[in-house]
Amino acid sequence: MKCLTRLNLVKVLRAASLGVAAMLTLGMSAAQLDAKVMERKISVGGTKRSYVLYLPDNLSARSSWPVIIAYHPALGTGQGMADITKLHQTAGDKFIVAYPDGFRRTFNAGDCCGVAEKRNIDDVGFFKAMMADIGSMAPVQSKAYLTGYSNGARMVYHLVCNVPEMVAAAAPFAATRNMDNCKSSRVPVLHIHGDADEGSPVDGGYAQSGLMKNSLGYMEPAQSVVSRIASRNGCASGGATISESGLGNSICKRYSTCSGGETILCVVPGLGHVWPGAPAGSKRFGPARPDLNGSRAVVNFFLRH
């Protein structure tokens, strides 16, 4: 599979200006961070990795905390993902929230992306190490709640495929991944995708927008991937159209009689390759829907599981 070159990734980032372009690099001093926020640095197989961690004020109030891990898009940062999604604000005192930094700002999702894939960086190992590191500071549940955007969404699916026993629920946005040859454990999934996304077309195929055009290889249709997840989760082929808080007029199909985990596909009308609720940016990434709140939909889904 072809991957974005570093030069093209830089150009894509500069063109974005939808929040990805505004993502901050880490390295900020403790004084610049809120009291509940810290930058963590760990070593995974000799490779230095980092993530931004948001801890609730009331850590002593629970004997076991659920953890949300939110993966950024290619050439983003953990702090940038926090700025775009504000998941830690939506989660409030209900979750610990972590925002990992990709290796050279990309994650190795097995079939993508960038330098992380090219160098076969162990991002599954990074996930496990993050959970252990967070667990050294607070009592945490053994399974994490995962969400991600673009390359980050592929990373979420990569973890669902390879370590489902460590995933409580997943909510990927704006990317798919081949889910053949995965472990058989069942994981609740909420997949969100814009119907105007040309960077990762909801109906599958190749990227059609700007510098991303034809550079990411073939992407499976969202419907096919979620149907495969639904089958693994013991769902019937049919389902009901529902509404998800925060996603407005989105067309959401919840598969029926799922014995192994709730499975939902939400297609958002008029949304491009832009997080639901984020402001409009470069036209190359398609239209935005600032009237929505994707983070609310994600957190509400996680609270159900």
UniProtKB/TrEMBL annotation:
Q: What top-level branch of life does the organism fall under?
A: Bacteria
Q: From the Swiss-Prot or TrEMBL record, state where the protein is found.
A: Secreted
**Alphabetized Pfam families for the sequence:** DLH
The Dienelactone hydrolase domain extends over 63-200
Q: Name one GO cellular component term.
A: extracellular region
**GO MF term set:** feruloyl esterase activity
Sorted alphabetically, the keyword list is: Carbohydrate metabolism, Hydrolase, Polysaccharide degradation, Secreted, Signal, Xylan degradation
Q: Is the Cell cycle keyword given for this protein?
A: no
Q: Which InterPro entries match?
A: AB_hydrolase_fold, Dienelactn_hydro, FaeB/C/D
Record keyword RNA-binding present: no
Q: Which GO terms describe its biological process?
A: xylan catabolic process
- Primary place of residence? secreted
* Leader sequence residues: 1-30
Which PANTHER family does this UniProt record tie to the protein? FERULOYL ESTERASE C-RELATED (PTHR38050:SF2), PTHR38050
Q: What is the name listed in the Swiss-Prot or TrEMBL entry for this protein? A: Putative hydrolase
The protein's organism comes out as: Actibacterium atlanticum
